[in-house]
Amino acid sequence: MDKDTVFAIGDIHGSINELETLLKQWNPDNERLVLLGDLVDRGENPYEVLIRAQQLEKEDGAVVILGNHEQMLLDWLEQPEFKQAYYYGQGGLETINSFFKFEITNKRGPNEVAQLMKEQFEAELQFIKSRPLYFEWQNYVFVHAGVDLNLEDWKETTDKEFYWIRDEFHYGKNETDKTFIFGHTPTSILHKTEGKFDIWYSPCKTKICIDGAAAYGGVLHGIKVNKDGIISTHSISSLTRSTKYEI
């Protein structure tokens, strides 16, 4: 029997403690858990978050959506030297080192590190590669970044835009019959107010952003919805020191 409520959680970025605290608000018996991607990079414990996500999928049927940072990790693995500067600077260092439990990037070059990751963490990387781009349920679509609203059918959105799109989705007219719950862009940017990490709603509330910049002094957001609308929202303040958030 399908569960009658979805509990969606925004970009975690290695914030394992905040995730575990937020999960206390989740009832696995009648709530489907959806993680909106960006499990890794930037925060302190990306590997632990990834392992927890695998467990939640296996044991509780959680839906774990692909985020752009998961894709960035996969892209770096294919071109480690070429993409080193970009990926390491986008939080990749934290992810790589959390896999190995020590600062391996200080001791080995990117090609060797990437090869070791492929050899030692095959199951984890396969999990990332198999992530869906979105989850459609009732009149909701849960997606990392958004969709192309200019298309006749939003499902024809390119793979990359599902996890990378920004302004054209945020400010585009939603003429679908769906409400989109997404992350990817910190809500402070959508609120146009630095430090304001509240959940963001579009004027008609058909687009809802729950990326609270958890790894950068913001909050980790969760939202519960059923077929009739929003049931509740839940926010866990970041336990990390606030720093400037760059997207």
Please work out how many helical segments DSSP would assign.
Answer: 9
The N- to C-terminal Cα distance equals 39 Å
Helix content: 25-40%
**CATH superfamily membership, which one?**
Metallo-dependent phosphatases
| Stretches with pLDDT under 50, minimum 5 residues | 241-247
Structural class: alpha/beta
Tell me the domain tally.
1
Order of H and E elements: EHEHEHHHHEEHHEHEEEE
CATH architecture verdict: 4-Layer Sandwich
**Cα gyration radius (Å):** 17 Å
What's the multimeric state? single chain
Question: What is the average per-residue confidence, as pLDDT, rounded to a whole number?
Answer: 94
Strand order of the largest sheet: 3-2-1-9-10
What does this entry look like structurally?
- The structure is a single chain.
- With 247 residues, the chain is α/β, with parallel strands linked by helices.
- It has one domain (5-68, 125-237): Purple Acid Phosphatase, chain A, domain 2.
- The chain is 34% helix and 19% strand.
- It contains nine helices and ten strands.
- A five-stranded mixed sheet has the order 3-2-1-9-10. A five-stranded mixed sheet has the order 4-5-6-8-7.
